[in-house]
Amino acid sequence: MISIDFQYIQQTLVDLVRINSVNPSLSSEGSGEVEIGSYVAAALDALGLEVTTDEFEPNRVNVVGILRGTAHKQGTNGRSLLLNAHMDTVGVEGMADPFSADIRNGRLYGRGSQDMKASLAAMLGVAKAFVDSGVQLAGDLWITAVADEEYASIGMEHLVQTIAAEDITIDAAIVTEPTDLTLCRAHRGFIWYDVETIGRAAHGSRFTEGIDANMRMGRFLARLDLLEQELRQRPPHPLAGPPSLHASLLRGGSEISVYAASSRLTLERRTSPGETPAQATAELQAIIDQLAAEDGTFKATVKPTFWREPFEVSADAPIVQTLAQVMTDQLGSPPTHTGQTYWTDAALLTEAGIDTVLLGPTGQGLHSAEEWVDVQSVLDLAQILVETAVCFCQ
After folding, report:
1. pLDDT band, residue 75 (cuts 50/70/90)
2. What is the pTM of this model?
3. Can you give the pLDDT at residue 74?
4. Domains of the chain
């Protein structure tokens, strides 16, 4: 078994949590990934990896470190493995000391401690373990730290495009999102929609002329509520659960004594593996068509504005089989196969044709006022990733 430098991982985690890397798309006080990217790049460079820092937008940075395998140097075959974490975090509102990195009772506290600087520290610890031990893999090991997962995932999108443009073969990936050391093989996707109901502006006294767009949005919302209830009654995906939706933002009208000419709704639809944007959009359009058939004055439009696909990987995928065996050996029992209701960058890697699985440490408080990670689970994660690389990169 290759030894892990536990002290290095813990100190690296402390350092990372103390860096403000709040996503600037989520908070006006967000610092972005430049500072934390510099730290990660320096750490990888100190270990002797091939390091690339890619500032693909102002203050938005990806960092990639590659530990070349013997197959690459000899021109022979060897499976490559990509490890991934994102560097950005959500905001710190309501947190007394978000960057403290205090350790109490085996837990390290602070924004991003579990989501997902612990995983990033573990990945750096993996690279150090191979460098320190002198063990050489046949295939390449990629350590990737990306921007913007907490908002639009432009970092992973850019990384995937770069891999494709350079015709690089990645045989499998592990996205180290927090999974409480369960083997996650699926999660839901999402679609953001703009819905507009169209009325006719008129003075409030002219009821024969005005058409109230807000009232008509109310009709749509009533049918939307029925659809939401029906979605959650559908047979759930065995790992990721049922689809769902919610009405996020509502705005309409101009002043009190005027019929609203327009009412706008922003809604989010969470999709289960197997569902498509076209199917979800058709369900919303069907509501509009039904309401228009019932009342000729009802006019509305629905438009998907942004979406990400669900994620699923087969239990038979080689990386899943390898990881499951390593986890059994390391933890003393077979891992639990799970799904998640949230979305991750794993979906973009899967869309690119790379078998991907999720595995990350244990903790609590993601996106809340008190976030912490169990330090021992971070060390366990690093050991599992090392042994997985040994077994997979042959």
Report:
1. low
2. 0.93
3. 67
4. 6-187+310-392 (3.40.630.10), 189-308 (3.30.70.360)
